From TrEMBL:
Coiled coil: none
Statement: the UniProt record of this protein carries the keyword Zinc: yes
Name of the protein in its database record: allantoinase
GO CC annotation terms, alphabetical: cytoplasm
Subunit text: Homotetramer.
Amino acid sequence: MTEFAIKGNTIITPDGVQKGVVYIKNGLIDDILPELLPEHTVDVVDIQDNILMPGVIDPHVHINEPGRTDWEGFDTATRAAIAGGITTLVDMPLNSSPVTTTVEAFEQKIAATYGKLHTACGFWGGLVPGNTNEIDKLIDKGVLGFKAFLTHSGIDDFPNVTEEDLRKAMPIIARHNVPLLVHCELSTDDVLATGDVRSYANYLSSRPNEWEDKAIAMMIRLCEEFNCRTHIVHLSSANSIDPIAIAKQKGLPLTVETAQHYLYFNAETIPDGQTQFKCAPPIRGKENNDQLWQALRDGIIDFVATDHSPAPPSLKQIDSGNFMTAWGGIASLQLALPVLWTAARERGFSAIDIARWLSEKPSHLAGLSHKKGKIAKGYDADLVVWNPEQSLTVTDSLLQHKHKMTPYLNEALHGTVEQTYLRGENVFDNGQFTQLNTGNLILR
């Protein structure tokens, strides 16, 4: 369908919610009109009161291919994405083998996507000790920016960087004006918990707020010194909100995301032994998480991304329930929109907020704001139609991820995805995939 229109009563545009018609031609949004003009003799999809929103952009996804496709892969991850209204992903450089820290490894990553992409997909390069000489070459090959850890990543071949490493890399990254994404925890050995390994409270105490707060303070300092675009991933410590706000008020090129699980769950209600809740930084207490919501409301936190990081049941220690040795990662990609909407609607937020947090703001981080993340003339017709009132229960059969282990299993959520459009092509419709292998690579 190269030319058609979507008619609806709730179209989210940069100017707010509109009633009207989005005219789509050759994969692009050609116009937004109150009604179709007489010369527009095209098919019309009438979505009535469902919401039409820019396709969700998730810039924090661990797809793990090549090398660890038994954890997740491009086929299953991007199927889950379009079933969840996600039209663009950016893949993280670790958990695959080899990790994406060299041009050679990046070329293997690109080759692994062939015949398996059902969404648009970009890539972050990895920053590790000793690979500073790869930064320019990886950018030339098309990575959208770089990811670094300040504590052990969980993967031995993706070691964490030190301040010395960052001082070598950040001037180069700043020269190219691409973002440096940072997992902000500075760990110390003397605070590790030694209690019941099945206890969530014990695990939480093993990764205190201070780890994050020290790391974020260091990144703010280096961001200012090198004027390097710096992005703090999956903020969980509310203690760091005020320093981040001050840094932004000073005009530093600093952005921040949090994740759905920090907004939906609270530590007080996580059962012992349920390692599907384990992530790093950990899900903290309700008082802390309420402050994250306020920071989202105030614009201090820019957007929300899943940090989808699945692993096989054996690595998640599902049988033993050992929080201390289980893989730290939450599978949630397909549920990005309904999880956030379910929690947000209870707090008085609107679908406009959802579009800003899941579509518009993430497009800026990935360097795609000129063509994705808005319903506007000339933009890619990457769109999601969703019903804000309809509920769904998360079941094994619903999920397209390779592994069905998720803390959201059996949760009742609001906000069902009715249709997903990728560059004007209907790829998901009322629970069915209508077209596959229509995704594309996004290279800088």
